[in-house]
Amino acid sequence: MNTAKMLGYIPWNPCRGVQLPRIEKAEDEAIFLTHAEFSLIVEGMGERFKAFTNFLVMTGTASEKQGL
Q1: What is the DSSP secondary-structure string of 1-65?
Q2: Rounded distance, CA 26 to CA 52, Å?
Q3: High-pLDDT (> 70) share of the chain, %
C-alpha cells in the first residue's frame, strides 16, 4: 500500500521493488506424539510453561504456528 506515501508521512514506499520470499509447501507428513512421549516432554519442562503447553495440546491449538 502507498497510504503512508500518499498521506505525506514518508517520501517514498520502502517496500517498492522488494521481492517477497517464496512459500514452500512442506512435503513432510505430520508426526504425532504418543501420550507417553508428550508426558516425558512436559515432565522435563519448567513449571512456568507446563500449563500453557497442556492448554495448547489439549485444546488442539498446538501447531507449527505456535512453534510446538
Answers
A1: --HHHHTTSSSS-TTTTPPPPPPPPP-SPP----HHHHHHHHHHS-HHHHHHHHHHHHTT--SGG
A2: 27
A3: 84
What are the residues whose beta carbons fall under 8 Å from the beta carbon of 11, sequence distance 6 or more? 5
Q: Give me 17's grid cell.
A: 521493488
CA 68, CA 45: separation in Å to the nearest integer?
13
CA geometry: angle 15, 20, 22, nearest 5 deg: 180
Q: What is the pLDDT of residues 10-40, one digit of tens each?
A: 998 888 889 988 887 767 677 788 999 999 9
